[in-house]
Give the backbone structure.
Amino acid sequence: MSPEAHRAKAERIERSLAKCGPQDYEMKIEAAMLAGTHWLNLALHRMGITPPQTDVLHTYMLTVNELRKYRVADAELLDALAEIEDIRPGFVRGNLPGGEKAAERSLALLSLLRQKAQPDYSAGG
């Protein structure tokens, strides 16, 4: 997928995310993971680390060599998405207490992913 397509998808997901209320923590976490994946792929493509036909689906699906290569490029990006992915099972698929706080953390990580993928990004698009 092209960097422009990743940006468009991430922005569309974030527009939908803005409609969620505090009780919608499952959707917030899920949307943070989905949009965050697009921001990560945008960054990797722009850095020339991955070609447009190679996209990361989940950090836990990467081979050891891919993970090392991408971490050298920007460990903070990979760590942010990995943390959202780690939060997800307990609150989206499970019933752990503290979902609203987990959603807040996911959104903070999403913000970091967006900023690092596209430093000139503004909330208006």
